[in-house]
């Protein structure tokens, strides 16, 4: 009856008086106005009776009915290990490697079933497109094909005006397209087998088995919300326009009536959200041309570049190609010269920019999760770069088993191992071409400098030893006899100058210096002896008075005086210690003790 247009249906959720929500499916006649339908839905939750729990008498004794049946041996999945294995640091390394090892030591079937509890893994297993912009592109391109291939579909309102009802995507699209647009939450082996065959991929959603139809949540709030989320993005970039019914004499557009659908529409102007399925638009028009804005340059006010036709499938593909460039290639967008005026983006600008500017939104390749990569790393030797691809048979059987365990395509697993081995080879080649590290060069330079310094030290020690030997030869030649203290002191001063000179060119100079020092020492010794003899020859006579010494009587006139010789030479003062050395020999300075301060009370007591 719904396909013939006799009735219409939709699903929604109402809140019961007790608090929880309940999903209901409402059927109504096409003649019912939207206002009456909204009022009915609003009053539906209030009018439902509150269920009363019946009073049941409990029996304390355990009652056994019939023969005892053994409970089936249910396999428990290690979801706790998976939860800990997911945790990773900022570099992507697992924070609980012991949980990862314990999980991957189980049987392959247990590992596969555990990984299939990950939403990203199970959804991509069924063909889900992870990039949001690419999902919107797939929805747009498939709808254009449907206008050509399914013009008689009940949910296509007008092929000429390109108007479609939202229920089309819950009935007349193939299973593969539905799984690509809406992610699945749980693994279903029946769904996996259908997607492996071409016939199953082309099966329309409305023809699915009831249990699979229910597991995919077809037509329910979650599915409707995911589809409206894509339509919101398409509206933001100007590809689609939301419509609403109108009775105006001058509507926005008018089409040929078909299957009880309205024929007059205006642009939907009310505020709506993908999460609200009741107030959201149900009719959508796919435009024949769409604008392109430079989204990578500005998020708040992107500049208008050009309008492109999107009537045919080929024109739409060219449009999406240019749109992708200006969204993720900033250099390309900056090189474009834009016209001074142009239309602004429609819809929620913030939501559109957030979705379309991300590179991940345009990613078409399979996205391996971290836990899948941890499993692949178990078959990659980090030290040797060995992978199953380097086995003798190419690792075909191993690769198929790995792909089955992690539920990833075989091509994705093969490419991952190929890239890992290529990175290892590149790292080894770069290490061989790379010059020695700066630290090694610095260490080598420091060692070379230390060796040179050691050679200089040894050379200086050898030169000083040779200089000492030359000094001993010089002194032995000029003064072979032992020296007294006075002579040694004079010679020692010259020795210090000789050792510090560092040259052996002018030995005659040092011979003259040593000879002069020896002569001065000899002269000083002779002067000392003469002086001591004169003091010894002087006679002191006692005076007649006690305590007074009388002077010697002068010689008489007839007494001859001895001849007076030349004055003795002036003796050079022997070198001694300097004033600073004498002060240093006295030891540290003794500080005087400070006088103790007498307290005021002691002074008063003394007074």
Automatic annotation (TrEMBL):
Region annotated Disordered, chain positions: 432-468, 522-607
Gene Ontology molecular functions: DNA binding
Basic and acidic residues bias spans: 441-452
Entry GO terms, CC: transcription factor TFIIIC complex
Origin: domain of life: Eukaryota
InterPro entries attached to this UniProt entry: Tfc3-like
Protein's GO biological process: 5S class rRNA transcription by RNA polymerase III; transcription initiation at RNA polymerase III promoter
Basic residues: bias regions: 590-601
Name by which UniProt lists this protein: Uncharacterized protein
Organism: Hericium alpestre
Taxonomic path: Eukaryota, Fungi, Dikarya, Basidiomycota, Agaricomycotina
């Amino acid at each position: 009856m719904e396909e013939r247009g006799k009735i219409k249906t939709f699903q929604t959720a109402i809140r019961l008086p007790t608090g929880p929500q309940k999903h209901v499916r409402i059927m109504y006649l096409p003649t019912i106005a939207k206002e009456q339908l909204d009022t009915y839905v609003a009053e539906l939750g209030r009018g439902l009776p509150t269920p009363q729990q019946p009073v049941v008498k409990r029996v304390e004794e355990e009652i056994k009915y019939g023969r005892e049946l053994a409970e089936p041996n249910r396999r428990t999945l290690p979801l706790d290990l998976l939860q800990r294995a997911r945790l990773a640091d900022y570099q992507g390394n697992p924070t609980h490697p012991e949980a990862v090892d314990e999980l991957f030591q189980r049987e392959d079937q247990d590992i596969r079933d555990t990984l299939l509890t990950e939403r990203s893994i199970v959804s991509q297993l069924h063909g889900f497109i992870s990039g949001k912009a690419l999902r919107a592109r797939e929805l747009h391109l498939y709808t254009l094909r449907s206008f050509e291939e399914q013009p008689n579909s009940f949910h296509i309102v007008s092929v000429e005006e390109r108007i479609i009802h939202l229920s089309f995507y819950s009935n007349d699209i193939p299973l593969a397209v539905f799984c690509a647009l809406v992610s699945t939450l749980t693994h279903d082996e029946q769904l996996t087998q259908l997607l492996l065959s071409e016939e199953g991929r082309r099966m329309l959603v409305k023809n699915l088995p009831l249990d699979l139809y229910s597991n995919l949540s077809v037509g329910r709030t979650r599915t409707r919300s995911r589809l409206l989320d894509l339509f919101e993005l398409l509206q933001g970039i100007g590809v689609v326009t939301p419509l609403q019914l109108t009775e105006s004499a001058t509507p926005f557009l008018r089409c040929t009536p078909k299957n009880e659908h309205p024929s007059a529409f205006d642009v939907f102007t009310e505020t709506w959200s993908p999460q609200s399925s009741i107030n959201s638009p149900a009719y959508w028009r796919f435009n024949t041309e769409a604008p392109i804005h430079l989204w990578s340059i500005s998020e708040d006010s992107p500049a208008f570049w050009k309008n492109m036709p999107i009537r045919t499938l080929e024109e739409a593909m060219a449009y999406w190609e240019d749109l992708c460039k200006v969204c993720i290639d900033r250099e390309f967008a900056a090189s474009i010269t834009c016209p001074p005026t142009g239309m602004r983006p429609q819809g929620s600008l913030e939501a559109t920019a957030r979705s379309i500017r991300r590179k991940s939104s345009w990613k078409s390749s399979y996205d391996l999760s971290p836990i899948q990569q941890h499993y692949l790393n178990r078959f990659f030797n980090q030290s040797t770069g060995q992978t199953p691809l380097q086995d003798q048979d190419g690792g075909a059987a191993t690769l198929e088993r790995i792909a089955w365990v992690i539920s990833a395509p075989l091509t994705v697993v093969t490419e991952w191992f190929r890239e890992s081995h290529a990175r290892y080879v590149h790292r080894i080649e770069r290490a061989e071409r790379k010059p020695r590290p700066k630290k090694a060069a610095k260490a080598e330079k420091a060692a070379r400098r230390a060796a040179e310094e050691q050679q200089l030290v040894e050379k200086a020690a050898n030169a000083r030893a040779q200089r000492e030997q030359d000094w001993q030869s010089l002194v032995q030649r000029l003064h072979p006899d032992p020296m007294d203290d006075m002579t040694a002191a004079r010679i020692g001063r010259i020795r210090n100058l000789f050792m510090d000179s560092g040259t052996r060119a002018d030995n005659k100079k040092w011979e003259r210096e040593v000879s002069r020092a020896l002569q001065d020492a000899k002269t000083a010794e002779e002067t000392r002896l003469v002086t001591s003899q004169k003091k010894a020859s002087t006679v002191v006579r006692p005076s007649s008075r006690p305590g007074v010494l009388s002077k010697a009587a002068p010689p008489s006139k007839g007494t001859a005086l001895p001849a007076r010789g030349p004055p003795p030479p002036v003796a050079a003062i022997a070198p001694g210690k300097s004033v600073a050395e004498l002060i240093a020999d006295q030891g540290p300075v003794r500080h005087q003790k400070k006088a103790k301060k007498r307290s005021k009370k002691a002074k008063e007591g003394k007074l």
